[in-house]
Amino acid sequence: MKKIPLFDLNRHNKPLQRQILASWKKNYQKNEFTSGPETVEFERKFAEFCKTKYALAVHSGTDSLIISLKAAGISKGDEVITTPCTFSATADAIIHVGATPVFVDVDSKTGNISPAAIKQKITNKTKAVLIVHLYGIPCDLQEITKLIKEKNLILLEDASHAHGSLYKGKPVGSFGLAGCFSLYPSKSLGALGNAGIIVSNNRSFIQQARMIANHGIKDSQTKYTHHLNGFNKLIDNLQSTVLLHKLPLLPKVIEKKLQITQHYNEAFIKNGMSGMIIPDHCRPSIYVFAFQVKNRDEVKKHFEKLNIDTGVYYPTPLHLQPSFQFLKHKKGNFPNAERFFAQTLSLPIFPELKNSEIKRIVNAIKTIPRS
Ligand SMILES: Cc1ncc(COP(=O)(O)O)c(C=O)c1O
Fold this sequence. Notes:
The chain is of the alpha/beta class and 371 residues long. The chain is built from 13 helices and twelve strands. Helix content is 38%, strand content 13%. It has a seven-stranded mixed β-sheet, with helices on both faces. The protein is globular, with a radius of gyration of 21 Å. The model has no long low-confidence stretch (mean pLDDT 97).
């Protein structure tokens, strides 16, 4: 029995190889490697996809977060409330702008930040809340946006797992001041290398973000006037070219991953388990299919025996990572987050999975050993 990989970049990228290389040849001939018309078009189309007015494409998802925090005016002395159930880039970005990440516990079913827990941690130093739509499942945006308004805070969304996820029909990334996306190759919309993008409805915010990402330059007419101390973080045009080829395919990617999710979830129900929880009012763009299981190591071995790859996103909540020890958190501080990551396990989910492979995974779900 052939191994079913967790993700297969080759299957995903191969059908696009000819088109992308042909476009890259044009970039090459015109020497459009950094800025270029493809970047302008990709930003316009991605903003349209997210139903926002503006977008700014940058070098990576991490950069999209750092630049957004900076452009939102967050700096030393500020507190930013965030989740421990995420990839480290989310909270690292807060550190990189000199602010303090304030972790709070998560919802036990989705692993997403708990609005009630946010409320408890708001102080007079709190400037922003940085939420993460984990695995593509939207956070409780109704409660969160209500709280943000009430307390006059800034909402930033790390939507790196959630390209095209809808909450009450509205795309995630468009709820706060900024939506930040990683376009890393394995993401539902992925470049051929590192890339990221910020979306926003706020013109002055995006202008500020663009200056930060481009050495403080306001426009091409005053190329050597630097209005602030910025970075060289605008996306490479070659990546915009790739992303322009891939963006039109994204709705189909989302649809296919949702269909596979439904197949898996039905199998979980047949086995008396919950599968991946999708809250009401959401149409998620699933990044990874993740479920909760107490006997995770045993279940991982069950899939291994059947030659099916599994993943753990992520093994350790951030408050227990060595890099955040300076915040002096202890085991037990955020019990839901700790339990959630101790019990999370992911199965292969990508649009190019063959029906025979999906069937094998479905059968394997039906025979998961119970704890
Ligand atoms: C939730 C989350 N935020 C941010 C990032 C950082 O994105 P990048 O790797 O593009 O810098 C990632 C990367 O996987 C992520 O999963």
